[in-house]
Structure prediction request, 370 residues.
Amino acid sequence: VEDGGVVAAPSSSSAGLGVVGAAVEAVAAVAAMQDEVGSRREGPEPDPDDEPPKKKARVPGGESGKLEERLYSVLCCTVCLDLPKASVYQCTNGHLMCAGCFIHLLADSRLKEEQATCPNCRCEISKNLCCRNLAVEKAVSELPTECTFCLKQFPRSSLERHQKEECQDRVTQCKYKRIGCPWQGPFHELPAHESECSHPTKTGTELMGILGEMDQSHRRDMQLYNGIFSLLCYEKIGFTEVQFRPYRTDDFITRLYYETPRFTVLNQTWVLKARVNDSERNPNLSCKRTLSFQLILKSKVNSALECSFLLLKGPYDDVRIKPVIHHHCFSNDTNETEYVLLPISDSVECNKLLAAKNINLRLFIFQVQK
Ligand SMILES: [Zn+2]
Ligand SMILES: [Zn+2]
Ligand SMILES: [Zn+2]
Ligand SMILES: [Zn+2]
Prediction:
């Protein structure tokens, strides 16, 4: 096979193309810079202003690529190589990271107890050291992007409408879903399915069974919220903001755990502990992240203290935690609960907590009185 795909970079190729040519040349220059930065893995970049103007160099994707394709390689996240969908951050040397990768790097560094560094140039990164790059965010939003269903390219501005309303391959559900049809498939197959769907011809008795199952799951949700509402009627309720701080065990191979300072709720002294991935040895090596916690009563009690408790997000955090009510009867012998999972929706949300120096949550304790 001949390598005829590689096109040399004649410096006059864009002469006479006017604005477009200038834009392509600018992109090429930026791409070349990024490329060089990428290949030189240590030390800060010299300020580009101090250097003579760059000669036009190799561009990833080839000279012949379309402007959009070349912009992709310039504007993509240097970690996951995808085009950032939301905020874009940059290290002090200008390497771009999408918000997800940035938070992941910060969370990993907490787990490894190391300073987070830019994967490209190894300079230190943190929420204070890195800033957003609005120009890149705006440039990305101008680029065409691929529909996740039909894989055709659309301008970002019209993609949302296309995916929601126009795409023939978008995932749709049968209109008889409300009476239990589980079918889902591409939009273009929907009319065929609906014309032969068996659900509208089901008997009333059959439908009653289906609706009963659907009521069940709704009832479970209602039970949880009614449970919380009835706890709120208790006479003795205490709550406080709790701050988990990272520590290391003094084992031969140390493990990360979190602990709050002692706090007082309902006239008792308590401590919360938390661990990542159930104390997995190297949680930084796995993509899945979970946090579980334990409530410990530190004061001595004369009689057993039966409590319900609830850990929710703190006042200034945006992490999503589902409410789950736990119960425990605390006494001098049983002063620790089991480790229970903090119900965070997914690993991305969990990384948001781990990326921060301390984890701030709010704890409610309800004392059960008989
Ligand atoms: Zn990324
Ligand atoms: Zn960097
Ligand atoms: Zn589509
Ligand atoms: Zn159906």
The longest helix spans residues 204-231. The mean pLDDT is 82.
